[in-house]
Amino acid sequence: MTGTAIGKPRTADRPHGGTGDRVRLWWDALPRQTQWLFGIPAFALVAALPVLRPPVLTTVGTDFGGVLAQFGMYALLAVGLNVVVGQAGLLDLGYVGFYAIGAYTVALLTSPNSPWNLTDDWLSRSWGWLFALPIAIAITAVSGLILGSPTLRLRGDYLAIVTLGFGEIVRLLADNLSDITGGGRGLSSIAYPVVGTSEKRPFGVFSAGNTQHAPTYGVWWFWLSLILLAITLILIGNLERSRVGRAWVSIREDEDAAEIMGVPTFRFKLWAFVIGASIGGLSGALYAGQVQFVVPSSFNVINSMLFLCAVVLGGQGNKLGVIAGAFIVVYLPNFFLGRTSLLGIPIDGNTIANYKYLFFGLALIVLMIFRPQGLFPARQKLLTYGRELYVAARRAAGYGKPAPEPTTEQGGAS
Amino acid sequence: MPLLELRDVTVAYGRIEAVRGISLTVDPGELVTLIGANGAGKTTTMRAISGIRPLARGSIWFDGRDITRMKAHDRVLAGIVQAPEGRGVFPGMTVLENLDMGAYGRKFDSKAEHDDALGRVFALFPRLDERKKQAGGTLSGGEQQMLAIGRALMARPRLLLLDEPSMGLAPQMIQQIFRTISEINAAGTTVLLVEQNAQQALSRSDRAYILETGEVSTSGPGKELLADPAVKRAYLGVA
User: Model-level pTM greater than 0.90?
Assistant: First the structure.
């Protein structure tokens, strides 16, 4: 145990190693420009999916564009929830509450059924959604602050239970404040951005009526959510690489130890909560705009579980991993929907899709046994002095091609 | 003026008072030890000093300032840094990342200053240098203890709090840890040490306090207490 295991490869040093690590090392070692060179075409390929409509991948039971739009929103939710759960390690079971607040903010400001509707007054319906978007984000951020400040003094299971309650409270409020939210009937005719009107699309590309001509409105919402997702990823990525990210990881690993290292833990937990909430609100606003109709039943607690499933499945703490998780959670049930045969084998796709909660539950259990860190586990890079050092250090530890001399390493042999 | 002063400090868990009206002082440059049996309130006292545990009564003074209400993370900036009991290293972070977390509240003017601080820790604990890319959770008990102390030193403490650094370590490792603590103290850092290993702790400390069921029962220079028949009987296993 106390021998001299220096310099030789030690994959067991980290909780996990292997192919993923090698790919990651290769990726991390690439210069920024090369990463963009790979990243932008990959991003474009994903964006082009609903136009290319690849044969097997394209859903048969529902509109492929609509499925991808939903994926876009879930990807945002997963990234937001990942800040809370994956980065700061705070188990939030009521994340759907923020999604609902975002959606209802847009609905209340722009639906003709709402007492607070602004669009029949001074606000044009064409710009109502865009006007409501930042307000929705701000209000969800504030709601995150309001939920977080009393509850973040709790830890672990207690926090989970309180947040679970929060998610339910939001839904119940929407259900019971009938005078404002329309209760179970919901709010309809929510504003959406009216752009690209033409003969074929009299209400613009984002209108729910745009279903006859490709690309349909789902595809446009997918593209919009992809752009917002990219912006969010860049912002969150910068945060994670900063002192804020280091603080989050240390809180996740050991909150008491973080506090006595000088990390203001409460403040950073609150930050994680507020940032996570506002991303959830952004996704909710997208949802309200796309569906143009909100009802309380769309924000059941089971949705929180589905979001969490995406994060855990993908790999807590890994931004791209949780997006993959979101894709699995949204796409798989829709893939089976309406399918009668797969690879020549007759299947009852609709039934499979209906049992999605059962299958995701089973998948989670299997995952917890064989790969508890998720399909695409996170790897932290925390050093104060940059990723070059990280790469050099990993190389020296024998993960990739041997570096000639790790001259840039910190400290050296003193 | 003492660097640290506890005035009549009481700490309670619910209705149970784990520490009852302790008063103690630590002067600049001293190595002071708090010894006592299990449940005497040693760790609770440490947690009160580092700010993790609120006081029920009394006050804590650091460098002439009342820090009773100061938050734990602000006390780190003021210069009180703890290597917690059970080590508390971040298991998923590498040794280097752990050490970096130690310097979280500290601003380095240059990379050289950062490397210098790191170099000092590695000079004290060469083993950490060998293992710097290894995850904290995979280190042996002794190495984790080294890491916890090294991490605390990265914050450049004015007062270093060490909570049972010898706990669960092999005898040889205990020797080494204590020698290093003496070295750290000799280099100018004031140290408050909590220990069950009375022999080692008393022989190395300037002064010591003996805690019994939440109260200070005896205090005095370490060497004197080592010779005290009552102390010998209770803590050194000598009849």
Answer: no
